[in-house]
Design brief:
It is a single chain. 31% of the residues lie in helices and 17% in strands. By secondary structure, it is an alpha/beta fold. The strands form five sheets. It has a seven-stranded parallel sheet with strand order 17-18-16-19-20-21-22, sandwiched between helices. β13 (226-230) and β14 form a beta hairpin. α1 packs parallel to α5 (237-248), α14 (448-467) crosses α15 and α16 packs across α17 (531-542). Mean pLDDT is 75; it is low at 89-93, 192-211, 285-353, 359-384, 440-444, 474-487 and 664-672.
């Protein structure tokens, strides 16, 4: 088995130099030499002027040529990122993300690598090769702004620094350079510094072939990677902490590694590292003393099964009583997808996207072969372990409102929720009548505080609407679309400003969720729109009540938690603070946030809340884009369209069934 690494670091950019990238390379090299089975001759460095396109391509060929199944390859890059206009029209965000090389210039394609080029390079690597990609760079500046700093020489310069680090200082203040980290991002030439706060964040488009390889990234797509002053020298905050964790726990998986880095960066830097692709058992594949057992085709079935469970943990947790971190994995048989009647090609799915469906069919096949039909009580007991809970947003919602949601999800989750009837496998939280009744009875007059909050929310929605306009010369038809939701927002204002009504609504939520958790059930919660606020505060209220159950995944869809005025009116213990993100509810294992183009209510929240993963700028299925973008009402409800496979199959179902969400629009990660 071969172990090779190509490590790239660039400090010497002509116009916007960095200071910690070469230290990153040396740090990674030290870890590979001293903690893993790498030899010095099999580690190649590309530093500063060596890291131009010709040198990078030569290095990639050296790294990957002749690699066979079972080999271990590491590629690391520390430096600037940016984006350029998408010329072929294939990117949903109209931009191609780029990696800036040492001689970078926007008008010279030979001075950068486009995301499509990376995709082609990675796709050429045999899927049996363990390729680990580590990128300490970023492709957006939307969480940062420019600020003057004073260098050690006394001279001043402007850097792009993170908003969180700037908060303690006045905008006119000049601070010592080492007090602020420099963002590893170069702003496109057509965007001046003052434009950054209004730029919408974009999804990461560095694709990994079939999600087979492992991709670790310094931050989510709307954040910046910090080139920071750490322990007396400049380092990449991501790379430095990643190396520290590998020195302490070299046996961890790549998913565990990212989770640990997230914990170390929390509260110090406003960046959430990301994980894409399979979870790689780093300690196992890097241990030269035990390679043959994990090679494909190994005759040691027990060892091969263990390796599969560690390196590709996609076996679904069906919610059985014994399910948990120590529960034994099912023994995989040597069956192909075709033998299971699951040919991915006619369905347009990749092999990985079929894994969770194949496992459901596998369980049914095994039970049939064993001639052990499941009795009705047994089936009921299994189905009662997993419950789907729906939480609606503003507007009138009667009994059965979630039936539409369920019809979109049902084809993709098999028998996970049993019969999935209301009260058995499914539950609804309904709260709209508490505010509808107040308004219809004239008891909900808005005071000055509520009117101010209403105006602030509408202003944010207007700003977001204007940002999506593709043709600035087109007059918005129908006037201000955000104002059309004003009366519906009033329903939510009653929740935000009336403590008695808020408590009654939260009791509606807890009266449904508490008994399920007390019975030890595992919940999947889908909350929509303004109902995500109800779910957040309700889950926080339940987290200290010693309940036996858990929330496997909480999905926030088109979440009003993205609106700053809403964040500021949460209960004090639930509000994001300047120095920290608001916590993930203690009962929740995974918090996944979704947002669609044109849905001005939803948006990124990972920079303000401890979200595990975000899927931003999703295509609003069933909505047509005009010169002023997508219609808010259509985009806001597009998640629950049965034709929206990206949401219902590749995010909702894939996550519920125990794998990672598979949509190409992912951030890359889990964020925690």
């Amino acid at each position: 088995m071969t172990h090779k690494a190509l490590l790239c670091g660039i400090n010497a950019y002509e116009h916007i130099p960095l200071r910690g990238c070469i230290n990153d390379v040396l740090n990674i090299k030290d870890v590979l030499l001293n903690k893993f089975a790498f030899q010095a001759d099999n580690i190649r460095l590309l530093l500063d002027q060596e890291c131009v396109k010709s040198g990078l391509m030569d290095g990639w060929r050296w790294l990957t040529e002749g690699a066979v199944s079972g080999d271990v390859l590491v590629f690391h890059f520390s430096g600037h990122g940016s984006y350029i206009p998408d010329k072929d029209g294939e990117e949903e965000d109209l931009h191609d993300e780029i990696t800036c090389l040492q001689d970078f210039a926007f008008d010279d394609p030979n001075s950068y690598m486009v995301d499509d080029e990376w995709f082609d390079l990675v796709q050429s690597v045999d899927s049996g090769v363990q390729l680990l990609i580590i990128r300490d760079t970023c492709h957006s500046g939307s969480s940062s702004r420019f600020m003057r700093v004073r260098q050690a020489t006394g001279k001043e310069k402007t850097i792009l620094a993170n908003n969180r680090e700037i908060e303690p200082y006045q905008s006119t203040e000049v601070v010592d350079e080492h007090l602020l980290s420099n963002a590893r991002f170069i702003a496109p030439q057509n965007l001046p510094a003052e434009a950054w706060q209004s730029r919408a964040s974009r999804r990461r488009t560095l694709r990994v072939a079939g999600d087979i390889q492992t991709n670790l990234m310094a931050c989510s797509e709307h954040q910046t990677a910090a080139d920071a002053y750490i322990n007396g020298d400049y380092q990449g905050a991501f790379t430095y902490n990643l190396c520290e964790i590998l020195r302490q726990k070299p046996e961890c998986s790549s998913a565990e590694l990212i989770s640990a880095v997230v914990d170390r960066l929390r509260g110090r830097y406003e960046q959430i590292p990301q994980h894409e692709g399979r979870s790689l058992a780093i300690g196992r594949v890097a241990d030269s003393s035990d390679h043959t057992a994990s090679r494909p085709g190994s005759t040691n079935s027990s060892t091969a099964t263990s390796s599969l469970a560690e390196s590709l943990p996609l076996w679904p947790d069906l919610g059985s009583a014994s399910a948990g971190p120590t529960a034994p994995m099912p023994q995989p048989l040597n069956l192909t997808l075709q033998q299971l009647n699951l040919d991915p090609q006619p369905l347009g799915l990749s092999t990985q996207q079929m894994v969770y469906l194949a496992h459901m069919r596998f369980l049914d096949t095994m039970r049939a072969l064993a001639e052990e039909p499941m009795s009705p009580p047994e089936r009921q007991q299994r189905s009662s372990q997993r419950v789907l809970v729906s939480v609606h947003g503003i507007g009138k919602h009667g009994v059965g409102y979630s039936d539409q949601w369920w019809q979109a999800l049902k084809p993709h989750v098999g028998s996970l929720f049993g019969p999935a009837t209301p009260g058995q496998g499914r539950a609804e939280v309904r709260w709209s009548d508490l505010v509808n009744n107040q308004r219809s009875g004239g008891a909900a007059e808005l005071d000055s505080k509520a009117r101010e909050l209403r105006q602030a929310i509408l202003d944010v929605l207007d700003d977001r609407r204007l940002q999506q306009i593709q043709d600035p010369t087109a007059a918005p038809s129908g006037g201000d679309t955000s104002r059309g939701v004003a009366m519906a927002i009033d329903d939510f204002l009653i929740y935000m400003v009336n403590a008695t009504t808020r408590q009654r609504i939260l009791e509606r939520f807890t009266s449904i969720v508490r008994p399920l958790l007390a019975a030890g059930h595992t919940l999947e919660i889908i909350s929509h729109s303004w109902g995500t606020v109800v779910a957040y505060e309700g889950l926080r209220e339940l987290e200290n009540q010693a309940l036996n159950g858990r929330v496997h995944t909480w999905f926030t869809v088109g979440s009003a938690l993205s609106l700053a005025p809403v964040q500021g009116t949460l209960r004090p213990g639930n509000r994001p603070a300047q120095s920290r993100r608001a916590p993930k509810p203690g009962l929740v294992q995974n918090w996944i946030n979704l947002d669609a183009k044109g849905d001005h209510v939803g948006g990124p929240i990972g920079h303000r809340f401890e979200v595990s993963r975000e899927f931003l700028n999703l295509e609003p299925t069933g909505c047509a884009a005009g010169p002023v973008g997508y219609n808010l009402g259509c985009a806001h409800s597009s998640y629950f369209d049965p034709a929206n496979l990206q949401v219902n199959r590749d995010i909702f179902a894939a996550t519920m069934l125990g794998g990672q969400a598979l949509t190409a629009a992912a951030n890359p990660h889990p964020t925690a």
